[in-house]
Structures are given as C-alpha cells and as structure tokens.
Amino acid sequence: MLISISWITMPKPVGTCGATKMKIMAIICHNGDNSGESYGYDIWKTMKERFHIYLGDNDIGNVYHHLNDLCEMNFVIREDEDVSGKCFYKMTDEGLSLKKRYDKYIEILESGK
C-alpha cells in the first residue's frame, strides 16, 4: 500500500530566502523608498493586511525570526533602538541586489489592494 505524503512540507534549509523573506524585504524596501520606517510590529501588521499571512497575534515572533535571518544573511540591517524602544530595519546593498526577486511584492504594496 502506498501512502501519499505530498501535503507534508519540509522546512527550508537555514540561510535560504523563500517568499516570506521576500515579502519582508519588499516591505522594508518599499517603506525606505517612501521615507517610511520599518520595525517588527509594523512589518507584521503589513504582512497581515497586505499579504494575508501571520494573521494571529502570536505570529509576530515569526516575523522577528525572519528579520534575524535576513540580518545574518546581510540583506537587512537592524538599527539600535530609539527612545520608543523600537528597532528599525533597513535594506543593505546586498539586499537591494535581490530586488528583482521581491519586485512583485512591492507592486502589491504600491497597488493599495
């Protein structure tokens, strides 16, 4: 008897950039291009509202996990906390060099849909 397990998804190897990281980079890039700031809670909120993922309040930790990975890969940098306690994220040149991979997500952010 054969059992299909195609519904099981394996985690991506550490250090890879899947769609979620691309969406986060698109948000940070879009905010930077429009004189906005990017911090964890705002990125999570945008992921919920614009990409309809991480809908639960407990999912914010996933965003910080991806942000830490992106920092380790040198695609984004984390700036020190400001007086409000927020840590802000900005794109690096290396992260910007991947823009073709996350351009479609920037289009979604710019479309207002």
CATH class: Mainly Alpha
Instruction: Characterize the largest beta sheet: strand count, sense, and whether it forms a barrel.
Output: 2 strands, antiparallel
Q: Describe the oligomeric state of these chains in a short phrase.
A: single chain
Read across the widest sheet, the strand sequence of neighbours is 1-2
Radius of gyration: 15 Å
User: Secondary-structure element order, as H and E?
Assistant: HHHEEHH
Explain this structure:
- The chain is globular.
- It is 50% helix and 7% strand.
- It is mostly helical and 113 residues long.
- Strands 1-2 form a two-stranded antiparallel sheet.
- The chain has a single domain (19-111), classed as Orthogonal Bundle (Arc Repressor Mutant, subunit A).
- The chain has helices at 19-33, 40-51, 60-72, 93-96, 99-111, and strands spanning 76-79, 88-91.
- The protein has 5 helices and 2 strands.
List keywords for this structure.
2 strands; mainly alpha; 113 residues; two-stranded antiparallel ribbon; Arc Repressor Mutant, subunit A
